[in-house]
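User: I'm putting together notes for a lab meeting next week and I want to include a structural view of one of the chains we've been expressing. I don't have a solved structure, so I'd like a prediction I can at least talk through. The sequence is below, exactly as it appears in our construct file.
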Amino acid sequence: MPAANRLTVHGRVQGVWYRNWTVNAAQDLGLTGWVRNCDDGTVEIHAEGEEEALDRLTVLAQDGPPAADVIKIDRSVVPAEGHMAFEKRR
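Assistant: Thanks for the context. Below is the predicted structure for the 90-residue chain, given as structure tokens.
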């Protein structure tokens, strides 16, 4: 089973194409999982794959798309859910 991380991205990350950007970045890194907006204004990312790719996604997510303004990212290790692709959720 691959490694898995849950990222909670804080800042101006909704309404700036952050979820679409995350899907592209995760797919480029060979990761699976999902990304969704949360009611509190954060974006939540569940990513599964190789540790190195998870680390890289975390670094890239600090910048995100051009219109985003990321304040901080909370990262935790979580159980893998066995996703076959990376998708955007509502």
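A couple of points you could mention at the meeting. The helical segments are 18-28, 51-61. The chain has two helices and five strands.

User: Perfect, that's what I needed.
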